[in-house]
Amino acid sequence: MRAATIILASAFAATSAWAEDVPYTIDGEAFTGYWAEAADPKGLVVIVHDWDGMTDYERQRADMLAEMGYNAFALDMFGNDTPTDTVDHRRAATGALYQDRERMRALLQAGVEQARERSSVDEMVVKGYCFGGAVALEMARSDMGDLAQGYATFHGGLSTPEGQSWNGDEPPLLVLHGGADTSITMQDVATLATELEESGNTYTIEVYSNAPHAFTVFGSDRYQERADAASWEAFSKFLGDQLQG
What we know:
8 strands, eight-stranded mixed sheet, 21% strand, signal, 245 residues, 7 helices, Dienelactone hydrolase, Dienelactn_hydro, FrsA_esterase, hydrolase
């Protein structure tokens, strides 16, 4: 664990070969993503933000990935005009997309297209945090699922919406979950595992003891260094397994 912590800490100070905010539009709406380019990329990672939108947190994770040798794009699921300052704002923003899965997929597809247009490598993994984890699984179940070589969630939403299901043909899944998460419970984890077993999916679930929801968010009162380091190490291995360069 000490080695993983050292690797994680060194990545905090890392810089990518090239990084910039990326403005783009979808049907006339303005969005802002973030692109971090590796010097010699082994693959592409698309990052889906949590319920407070695309922030410096996603930028930092993208920079860390670029330093590890992966192109990274943090996409924007809300748009520039969506307020996210308060809990009510965030509930409204995420709730609107949970209720409109067609729009969720359209925004996701547009963000992925932005990433693929910039990347010199095609092999891709999609990862998401909290709300973004639910979005990553939405993509895995969709007709876009085979665009990626794998999907990962960090303390992400795990419920399968009514009318959707797993067919067993989806790329490998990595679920990284806090055992003390009261927003997404261990029962939710067990339900997803049962669905994936029944459909024959390839998946890995890691549960970190005493880690609350949002345990990877730097500087928050929920941040847990041990679980953050362990989950980043697991994700790094997943990238190595799925992206061959």
